[in-house]
Amino acid sequence: MDVEFVFWGQSRLLELLSKEKHKGRLYFWFNTNQLTGSKLRSELEETISNASERYTPELHVDIKASDIFEPLGRTPAFVGDVKDRLDALSEEASSLFTQRSIEVLKQADEESFHELHDAIEQIPVLLQDIEQVDTDIPIQELVDTLEQAEQAISSLEPELRTLKEQAEEEQDSVGTTEKHTLNRFRQVQSEVYSFQRYVQSKDLQVAQDPALKLLGEAGMGKTHLLCNVAKDRIEEGYPTVLLLGENFYNRNIWTQIIERFGLTCGTEEFLGALDSLGESRGVRSLIMIDALNESSDPRMWSRQLPGVLRKLENYPHIGICVSCRTGYENRVFESTEDDLIETRHYGFREVEYEAVRKFFDAHGIDHSSIPVLKQEFQVPLFLKLFCENLERQGKSRVSHGPEGISQIFEGYIDGVHERLWRELQYDPSDNKVRTAVEALAREMAEEGGGTKRLPKDKAKQIVNDFLPGRRYPESLYRHILSEGVISEVVQFDEDAGEAVRFSYDKFADHMLAQQYLDLYVDGDFRDALSDSDELQEVFDDPFRYSGLIQALSIHLPEQHNVEIFDFIDSEAILIPFIKSLGWRDPQTLIDSNGDISQEVTDYLWSEIGELDELYELWRVLLTLATSSEHPLNTEYLHGILMEYGVRGRDHDWSRFLHEEFGEDTSEVFRLVNWGFSLENNPIESIELKRLISVTLSWFLCCPNRFLRDRSTKAIVNVVGSDLEIYIDLIERFRGVNDPYILERVYAAAYGGVLRNRTENSVTDIADTVFELEFEDGDPTPHILTRDYARGIIELANDKSDTYSVDLDKIRPPYDSSFSIGIPSPDELRDQVTERLEDADTDLESKFWIGLVGSDFEGGGFSDFARYVVGTNSDSTHVHGYDISGDEALRWITKRVFDLGWHPDSFGEFDQCVNWRLRAGRGTRKPEKFSKKYQWIAYYEFVAWITDDCEFTDSITDTPYSGPWTNWDRNIDPSVLNPEPESDLSIDQVPNYSLRIGDVGTEGWVSDDQEFPEIPNLLEISIDEESWLPLHGTYNWGEKESQESDAERKIVFWIDSVIVDAEDKSELLAWVRQNWVSSDSIQSGLVRLATLTQVFRGEYPWHPVVDDWLEDAGQAIRGSPVDTEKTIIDLHWEAEYDCSIDESYGMFVPSPYLSELLEMEWVVGEKMFMNQSTNPVRIADVSESDGLLDRVNSLTMIGGDSNLLQELTQTGLSIVWLVQGEKRISTGTISGNEFGKSQIRGVYSLNEDGEFTGEIESDFHAWD
Questions:
Q1: I need a surface site. Which of 70, 210, 1122, 1154 has the fewest CB within 10 A?
Q2: Quick check: 1071 and 1217 in contact, CB under 8 A?
Q3: Fold (CATH) for 10-74+210-344
Q4: From the record, what ranges are coiled-coil (predicted)?
Q5: What is the pLDDT of residues 136-181, one digit of tens each?
């Protein structure tokens, strides 16, 4: 690189700095009273001090609203995020655009391939200057380029799918190039769509146009957010100015800011200095002004903001953010509505878990004992009220009963009073805060019309009359305003001036309801309703006053022992009434016998007629589900849902679950997420565990795989070691009419016992399951339900010496009474036609055509028909049994309709369920109800054929011994976290230089003498202890240059086998002669066995392990002596398991080694250990995330020093086989032109415990 130095002397510098546009730089660099980082810090500290209780750093919770300040400031974090996105796109594109896949893409649609390729190459070019703060971001060009990519993807996808299907039919193989290309294509598709969303997001917009307005309701934490952002930026060295709107008056904005800093300069000098300061730090300086609505005249911003924004256009290293309370936008931003990018602050939405933990900890409240189900906890002010009320009562735990709204707000008022009587020096026995609040509410009630606002002057007078004669800073009004009890807001009528309201709307409704009842009800409510125009007005317009009606629904039964529906005959009060149930004193909901009031339940179920009304009831019942003392807890919900038929429940309940799970603020999502992530915070209350597990069990009927799978594991997580809860669950749901539910209840129970196998209650559960399922020889006709139930008993039999049962009764085949009748095509056609004629819904798609074809014969073309039932490989048998695929598909279709599928209930849902997700034909998606019923029918059908049909095709299939035989297992309930953080790690990974720049590519590859020293790879230390490697991979890689696709790679594979000590010498000699010294390219001698469809908790004792490995043979084929494997790979696919993000695996000791040393899985870790006083440990310490990354990083499973001692005492030895190679990788086959060098070695331990062995190496050129 050539660098030219240009000399600027004194005269040239003076000439440049004297120009108007450089006045800021002159001021920044040469003025002694300059704008410095220390001055910015001191001013920020003063602003934070003035913000007072609105900023509490000890209660800070990270929220998404803060993320947008990185692109606004063009910080390194923003640049890094953009580069990470580019790298992710580039990585997936590189995996797709290989020579073989390019040929497939061109065959699919050559023009679209080039369009996609060109678009993906253009994206990083458009963003190459992203680090330059003063360089524009070409957003429109990015949008156009990504649209080009999207159109190309839309054209290519169906063609690639067709090519893949054709190749599979022709080759009878699922491992085709076409399938590989389609899979990689879909990864690129996902990255393109992700990048498209990012380019269209506000993040990139505000990075380009740095003017942001932050809006939010009162009490949401806008001031806290800006204070924390400013503090973090100052600590990073990023120039930041934070000012409070309350300090601004109707004067020139820039003059006031400069005066605030005590500077004597003009606007251009100030902004130029701030711009230069940002430039020197490589970021944008930020000016942030909080709460414009609190300025002396909020309207002044509408007049001055346009000029402020225009001025800042000349300073590329300055951005601005202003915040404003919702409701003031029209006044403050009237003339700048389109000039500022808008973002909103929603409080603790999506982070309420962390917020609750933080607030509960600060107030000494235990947060691990109850799930966060109240949506109100998303509002910082409400969470504050809730915590302060509990703390004031001296409570350290949240009860499992409801916290009534009256109790919460009364406690809040008392807490404010406790603080203010000391500060304002008034009589503590006279609660002036309560008196003032009640007076404000009374005035609002007297005005009528459901008003929740008073003119500011009137409100000040009302409040200050209770503590008169005070200046404003010491007034009662000012203090309850600063405490957040009330807020000042702008009126809808611009000429009406400001108004005052209670800050939290639910609090306002609560206070108003009390005052309405005190003012207008004197005795009988019915009489008051007819006599009071104010009350009548509320119910004449129930939609406008729904919050007040909800509050009255709470207070009427509490204060007058009557229900609101006794007096108001209007459908419009139903939803407010339903919402009130979650806040009522539960004693008002029960009769004299302690049962739920029949009057209330009759009203609910007679009035609910629309789904939105029913959904609101479901939400309330879920909020109350875990309240052990509430009559509407999960027991009530259980009773309701148990009465439903399958179709009705799926229509009313399962659809609700699906829709709510898509909203991360919903009760459904939060309950599942809370239970799913509870691993390190166990629940103490058994009753709470029972209530939550019953509730989650009802989530198992939903066809949304993500919800169903995570609910299954959430049950396992919640129940923990209290296994007796599973007996209750199994007995409760044994008679449920939806097989989807019972299947997963058993799955959760099996997962629970696998994770807590030493508990005595395992045998109690096994006794219950045997009695219910197997004792009479007629288990539930569902292969997965049977499998989980069987597994519980297999575990009890394996782990307990005293447990005894007839194993033939729990293992297939079964003497089941279940029988089926295969419909003829005409019978099936008649059934479907009758159902359609009964429907009011026109269907655009008909799922049954994919199963049985339009002729109803059975020749379906869907993936389910071809690959699950298996007609693609053999249409005359199903899994080797003597029944045809056509017959199977006709019965499955009939069963779907028998279960209750109906166009009126599910037609529209099934058609639309995956549109938004672009899920296509993949398996990881929320499923249709028709697909749910197909799965039930399939599992029942397989149960029948394996019980009653003859197995006749032993050539291509294996007789059924469990659902793993046909790969039908779809979730491992024993694994909650597939990649747990381990306490064990390799102390030091060997480094190796690939000598880039020292030696040429061809010379490096062909030098077969230069490899890492093998003993250094075998000698591993874990937590400063010597361990033995049993299997491992070392991988080093480095690009030839920044611009090159060529990468030097060197890989070492380590395998080990166990051999009798007396046979070790013979084995070493044989390996040296037949493998180490070979002149040809060699593959590894030891083939690593991979087990799939085996639950981690089942290994190695379950019969499935023997099924998979019965023909495995010895470790080294052709060996003259017997050898045993030390390791196998336990692998779980993510194809149907939506509780995990990707497939995962774990290296485990071989069955031989596990049985020899009596080793078991350490639950929650990637380690096996035995139970001796000096236990042997074998652990997977691979330094990678997920199975697919193993070959790109270090993988290793090792055994501690006790392993060698145990083997030696048993007369056994270990032999290691090591193979390494170096080659050039280019992402295509072109790298093979350089050939490769290979090294092979065989090692053992000598008497001193040192690795000794022999190696050979050679270079192999390609012909």
A1: 1122
A2: yes
A3: Rossmann fold (3.40.50)
A4: 139-166
A5: 999 999 999 999 999 999 999 889 888 887 876 665 444 568 888 8
